[in-house]
């Protein structure tokens, strides 16, 4: 039995997590970049958590896809249960010493794990680490993240990169919705018995993938 940080008990029952970005009408109408807000749901569409991104206007306008941020994730009572922290780092394979690294805390102030980008000239690759910075899982994306009306899958693999145990998927949600609101819809599929802290880290990985590959891409168009 895994230790269950307060607020993560519900993740213990889930093998599928849906992340839906809420549409901001001001951003959709005026093209103004605002802080992102997300609903995190189970496979039945019931909201489990609510997430809000915190950063400055300068970061959003000038550093958009590589911007630093703090994402606070609260349960339905408003209690913060997960905190995702991303520093300003490089987003290019030409700078392998300064690639992305994300920290996930649960409860806030206690490390749950990390998402670390791995250098590769062709594929998006990440390592999921536990609170002790020990490697746990790998995430490997496709050669091209342009969906062109199809879902885009990032496979979750064992450390040997041979066995696939789940995936993070960017869902295609329709031309009009994507072009005019650029909202994100993701699904995370993992084994139900995966440590809840690693499930929380997978949610952080999903946010990182969204900003790195889909923030300014009109979601595959």
UniProtKB/TrEMBL annotation:
Pfam family of the protein (one): Scramblase
Single GO MF descriptor: phospholipid scramblase activity
Cofactor(s) demanded: Ca(2+)
Keywords carried by this UniProt record: Calcium, Lipoprotein, Palmitate
Protein origin, superkingdom: Eukaryota
InterPro entries for this protein: Scramblase
GO cellular component: plasma membrane
PANTHER family in alphabetical order: PHOSPHOLIPID SCRAMBLASE FAMILY MEMBER 5 (PTHR23248:SF25), PHOSPHOLIPID SCRAMBLASE-RELATED (PTHR23248)
Family classification: Belongs to the phospholipid scramblase family.
Function field: May mediate accelerated ATP-independent bidirectional transbilayer migration of phospholipids upon binding calcium ions that results in a loss of phospholipid asymmetry in the plasma membrane.
Protein name from the UniProt record: Phospholipid scramblase
Origin species: Struthidea cinerea
